[in-house]
Q: What sequence folds into this?
């Protein structure tokens, strides 16, 4: 019996379906990433895959000889700029190859030595974190391609159950880049179509998430997918069916408190 693809592989397949769905006249159209066309976004993900593959090889002491991979983040940036000028056919082929190689390498690493520490752009993390980073990258940026594709392709049905809690945990790291760092605010996040309720507090230059019910300056209630896109900065609450209670100005500035990813 064939083994079921990993969730990372499923996310990559879904992302590549989005890439394949970009029409000929869609590559120059804008995406949900401000200032980026579909070409820019696909080049970003492809060079990201290449960068992470190189970092994995380095972590395991494997030889890069003969492999055309970025040596560091600056090299990745140069490759992104060059790749952003490519014709769609070449870019799609490169994106698919980079994804397949990276997904395979992460799968092997997660099976054989998950405790291995890998250098990534923001620090050192074990292999399961690398896997999660690439998985979320595929889903987020596949969604970002929607305006260029011209239609929405549903995300994998298992994704939100896995990703919503992870995204709330991510807010503590995103707050470190906030212009509001050092100020205080609290946010109640309540999923209405499944399990999940959190209080996210920013205070004293740090942000902490707790899985609990409680009062906060702002409460956001709604379906898990809508909450996820708001947390990821892909639209305002009202665009995703999210009810807002409390301070409306604070709710509207949520991503100023947690910029990115």
A:
């Amino acid at each position: 019996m064939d083994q079921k693809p990993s969730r990372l592989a499923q996310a990559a397949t879904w992302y590549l379906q989005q890439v394949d769905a970009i029409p000929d006249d869609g590559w120059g159209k804008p995406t949900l990433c401000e200032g980026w066309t579909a070409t820019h976004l696909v080049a970003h993900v492809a060079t990201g895959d290449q960068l992470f593959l190189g970092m994995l090889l380095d972590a395991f002491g494997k030889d890069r000889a003969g492999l055309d991979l970025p040596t560091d983040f600056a090299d990745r940036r140069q490759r992104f700029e060059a790749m952003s000028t490519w014709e769609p056919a070449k870019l799609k082929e490169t994106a698919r190859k980079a994804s397949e190689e990276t997904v395979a390498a992460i799968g092997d690493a997660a099976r054989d030595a998950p405790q291995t520490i890998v250098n990534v752009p923001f620090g050192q993390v074990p292999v399961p974190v690398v896997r999660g980073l690439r998985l979320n990258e595929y889903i987020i940026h596949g969604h970002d391609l929607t305006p260029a594709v011209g239609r929405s392709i549903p995300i994998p049905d298992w994704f939100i159950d896995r990703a919503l809690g992870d995204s709330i945990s991510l807010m503590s790291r995103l707050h470190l880049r906030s212009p509001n760092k050092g100020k205080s605010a609290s946010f109640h996040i309540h999923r209405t179509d499944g399990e999940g309720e959190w209080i996210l507090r920013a205070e004293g230059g740090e942000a902490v998430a707790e899985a609990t019910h409680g009062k906060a300056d702002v409460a956001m209630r709604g379906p898990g997918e809508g909450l996820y896109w708001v947390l990821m900065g892909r639209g305002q609450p009202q665009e995703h069916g999210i009810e807002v209670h409390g301070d409306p100005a604070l709710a509207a500035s949520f991503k100023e408190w947690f910029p990115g990813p």
Q: What stands out?
A: The chain has a mean pLDDT of 94. The first helix runs from residue 7 to 20. The chain is about 50% helix and 15% strand. The two ends are 39 Å apart (CA to CA).
